[in-house]
Design brief:
With about 210 residues, this protein is α/β, with parallel strands linked by helices. It has a domain of about 150 residues: Rossmann fold (3-Layer(aba) Sandwich). Helix content is about 50%, strand content about 15%. A 5-stranded parallel sheet has the order 2-3-1-4-8, sandwiched between helices. It has a 3-stranded antiparallel sheet with strand order 6-5-7. The protein binds BIS(adenosine)-5'-pentaphosphate and magnesium ion.
Length: about 210
């Protein structure tokens, strides 16, 4: 089962990718997480990506495509994978078609006002990557992860100016993928504006229909 999670920033792709990954035993491949780790580890890739990400722009296609191609060559994707945040340009989508067969591109639909509210309140565990929201899904102890005790942090690109830029980049460069995957007969929409349980239920229905 090879899935793409497509949608604007803050739509809930990462939240659902973690749940789906654990439930079905297939890896979540988040290009954003991979880039953030590279930045934290100060690798060559991280040095190239840092300023681009802080501004809310996209890392160049050639770097991103190569990274995903290498990741999908590993053994753990044999039973399937979830691409969380890739592809996000038409060029990336066309490249992906050359090295992977996709079952469905799941499009997470959500209103813009809700995106801003979700992103400004998001906090992430620096150790295990668990995702919280300061009012909707707060940790039991402020600033500390319930699951592993790690310290929570706010992403550099979850500041208002970077959020605006990310939304503009999404509209210009990523939204055309909705038509791309619809034309390929692979697009499946979910309403991601209600709550995580409702998103999860819609996803399970889609996955069951793919497996049937
Ligand atoms: P990336 O990390 O992919 O960020 P993004 O696409 O902007 O999406 P987010 O991670 O912000 O949101 P999400 O949909 O995962 O939402 P989440 O589940 O966390 O990319 C970051 C950067 O890396 C890019 O800007 C770019 O620079 C670079 N990059 C990455 N991939 C690239 C590529 N392919 N090409 C080029 N550059 C690339 O949820 C958000 C909040 O909402 C949380 O607080 C959560 O608790 C809450 N929430 C989630 N679901 C719900 C729900 N259903 N109801 C209520 N609240 C919810
Ligand atoms: Mg994410």
């Amino acid at each position: 089962m090879n899935l793409i999670f497509l949608g604007p920033p803050g739509a809930g792709k990462g939240t659902q990718a973690k749940i789906t990954s654990e439930k079905y035993g297939i890896p979540q491949i988040s290009t954003g997480d991979i880039f953030r780790k590279a930045v934290a580890d100060q690798t060559e890739l991280g040095k190239q990506a840092k300023a681009i990400m802080e501004k809310g722009e996209l890392v160049p296609d050639n770097l991103t495509i190569e990274l995903v191609k290498e990741r999908l060559a590993k053994d753990d994707v044999k039973a399937g994978f979830i691409l969380d945040g890739f592809p996000r340009t038409i060029e990336q989508a066309k490249a992906l078609d050359n090295f992977a067969e996709i079952d469905a591109a799941i499009n997470f639909e959500i209103d813009k006002e809700e995106i801003v509210r979700r992103l400004t309140g998001r906090r992430i565990c620096s150790n295990c990557g668990a995702i919280y929201h300061i009012t909707d899904f707060p940790p039991k102890v402020p600033g500390i992860c319930d699951k592993c005790g790690g310290k929570l942090y706010q992403r550099d690109d979850d500041k208002p100016e970077a959020i605006e830029k990310r939304l503009a980049v999404y509209t210009k460069q990523t939204e055309p993928l909705i038509t791309f995957y619809s034309s390929a007969g692979k697009l499946r929409n979910i309403n991601s504006s209600i709550n995580p349980e409702t998103s999860e239920k819609q996803l399970i229905d889609i996955i069951n229909s793919i497996k049937a």
